[in-house]
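A reminder before we start the practical. When you read a complex entry, don't treat the lines as separate problems. The point of joint prediction is that each chain is placed relative to the others, so the output describes one connected object in space. Small molecules and nucleic acid strands, if listed, are placed in the same frame. In the example below there are two entries. Take a minute to note the order of the lines before looking further.
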Amino acid sequence: MTSPPEVEIQPVRSRNRSVPLRRQPPMQVWRALGLLSFLLLWQTAVSYGWINPTFVPSPISVLETLWQMVVTGSLWPHLLETLQATFAGFIAGVVVGALLGFVIGLSPALSSFTSPFITMMNSVPRIALAPLFVLWVGIDIRSRILLVFSLVVFIVLTNTIAGTQNVDSDHLRLARLFGASRRQIVFKVALPSVTPWILAAMRLSFAYALSGAIVGEMFLGQRGLGYLIVAGSGVFNIAQVFAALTVAVVIAFFFDLLMARGEKMVLRWRR
Amino acid sequence: MTTTLEIDSVTHRFDTPSGGVEAVRDISVEVAEHEFVAIVGPSGCGKTTVLNIVSGLLNPTSGGVRFEGRPIEGVHPEIGYMPARDSLYPWRTCLRNVTLPMEFRGLGDNRSRKETARELMASVGLAGFEDSFPNALSHGMRQRVAIARTFASRPRLLLMDEPFSALDSQTKLVVQDLFLRIWEEHRQTVLLITHDIMEAVALADRVIVFSARPGTIKAVYDIDLPRPRSVQDLVFDSAEFQSHIRRIWRDLHD
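Here is the predicted structure of the whole assembly.
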């Protein structure tokens, strides 16, 4: 017995024929789909008992916890605390690191002199210094700002020094031959050349800044996302731990998005 | 006829761990005002060393250089320079690359600098590209911006370090002619460094051939082709041009 063909015959269309790129869903859609399927898998794993919800709560319960914290407003003081420490330390670290790095990088003698010291100081585990920071500046937010600062400043410093030393020698030569003064070389050649390096260091170091603030709060805080994590795991409220981590991820994500936008604007001369 | 540039028995030796390397030996060249002189030689013959000494970036081991009768000490504001790679600053628009030498030399105010730069951009055929960034331009266009930049510094002596070597052969002809056309307006004194005999003959009044390291002057040729010249016409049609090249080529390879 033969059945009629189930599919209609389509007009032959070559697969090689170029399809307008716009027709394909943008990468954001794929990313969202990826994230969604991961959450779905996670939810399924918890629902079917493949994972013990005592240790890994389901994404839904994490979101519920987070939502509760948002509507009751209990999240805000913690969020504010972490943001304050993160941004205060981050901004101070970027400013000091970039200025110092620029000055050091401009002088070959100074960069050569400081290089081993910077390497040594950069290899000190700053997190381990947290108790010392408390001794030096007190147990309040200042110790966490200092911790964040100490993490950010070296990343920005080393990047800025590297950038200053990598100014295109042809650009420098040209400036000299056109009779540029030292001041003009610093501001019209070196500074624009270093800017991409500083921006890259900022993007890189923000994750460290946020982690520094949170870890600091875990040790030293009575408030903040780090405190929520410690307090949550202490009473087996793992959903709270995950909620706090989710907030941290969202902060980092949006800051990076912002930085990417800013970078594109400042470095619009790059194609 | 006054002498713009005098290179007087210049010898330069670079210090290296294994003693010294003599880059150039006993170079003497006089370039008259409005004269276009080309130095040709194999790579490593010390051409660029001579240019660095003339531009004031390098002090010769012995001998001296005078510009308009005065010894050169450091970079001189009236000596212009055109590098091999265009060396445009990628973070500046084309227009602001052209204003650069005027800024460095403190010529005019911001407004007059931009006006001059705009005129120069138009004269190299790049009107409309003032606000483009160099990364968006082709090699040939970038080199044209570099030409505009060179003339923006209002040089009395122009030093050119293989300025067209990075261009493909067709673009090179076009850009060379463009350069000559702008140069004809003031006929600045030029010292051109190149490894390209054809380029030297097409552009210069006098061609000085260097020997390999240490660079010494091997021969000097007067190129009496009439001006204004068109490099394209010379290359395609001129028997005289060809015979100049043939002569230099044979001398070099004997």
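Discuss with your neighbour: Chain A touches chain B through 23 residues (CB under 8 Å). What might explain this?
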